[in-house]
Design goal:
The chain is α/β, with parallel strands linked by helices. It is built from nine helices and eleven strands. The termini are close together.
Length: 252
């Protein structure tokens, strides 16, 4: 079977030092340090092994990389337009975000990128599927809509414009739906107190390290009242707008 001609850009954000340093165990620190990169690597494995993507047409960007993500995205879109002009492109982001922006890097030029800048790169001629797995991810939709680019593309987000998101929870449900060859349209996705970390969501294997992380997250939440408390029992509401292009990610 011939591989797909579709181009995909996979973006993994890096982790904030304050979160990494909040864990006393070195193994726990290493676990969190590269969690977004590991998730994007799982997506890449899925694209190649199950969705039959050509590895040479899968571009990747890690938040800690040198260079500008927007410049790399522009180069990506240019090559896709030349080599696969009839095909939509895939852009997937897994990392931190805020209202109106996403943050592939903790510092530097990629620290805070406006969704409007990404939308302008996509423009009105590029057909695209943008999967945004970050906190406040739904805030991208009105920006893409206002600029008129969503008419020629599709956006799927892990939560609403106001929600903090458990990214592993979204990825698990999203890939599960793609494997079933269905359009991703859940009104909500949720976890419970037995499943509250990326690795548990992926394989249900409770290692000592993951159990430690669970305990620390809950302790931190109780002490500070921050968003980790939601990990114990959490619900988020994925959003979507534009065309139905999910089939681009279905297995072959």
């Amino acid at each position: 079977m011939a591989t797909r001609d579709t181009y995909a850009l996979l973006i993994a954000g890096d982790e904030t030092p304050d979160l990494i340093e909040s864990f006393e165990l070195r193994k726990a620190q290493e676990y969190f340090k590269n969690r977004h990169l590991r998730a994007i690597q799982r997506v890449q494995d899925y694209l190649i092994k199950e969705a039959n993507y050509n590895p040479e047409r899968i571009w990747s960007f890690f938040g800690g990389d040198d260079g500008s993500l927007l410049e790399k995205t522009e180069d990506f879109l240019k090559e896709a337009k030349i080599k696969a002009p009839e095909n939509p492109v895939i852009i997937m982001y897994y990392g931190h975000g805020n209202i109106g922006t996403f943050s592939p890097a903790y510092t530097g030029k990629n620290r805070e990128i406006a969704y409007g800048s990404l939308a302008q790169l996509c423009g009105h001629e590029t057909k695209f599927l943008f999967v945004n797995n970050s906190c406040f991810s739904g805030s991208a939709i009105p920006i893409f809509t206002k600029l008129g680019v969503v008419k020629n593309g599709s956006i799927i987000t892990s939560g609403s414009a106001e929600e903090l998101c458990c990214s592993g929870l979204f990825l698990y449900n999203f890939l599960k739906t793609m494997r079933s060859k269905k359009i991703f349209t859940p009104e909500k996705i949720e976890t419970h107190k037995e499943v509250n970390s990326d690795d548990l969501i992926e394989n249900d294997n409770k290692t000592k390290m993951v159990l430690f992380i669970e305990k620390r997250l809950i302790e931190k939440a109780k002490a500070s009242g921050d968003w980790y408390e939601m990990q114990k029992i959490h619900t988020q509401h994925p959003q979507r707008a534009g065309l139905d292009l999910d089939h681009l990610l279905f297995p072959q």
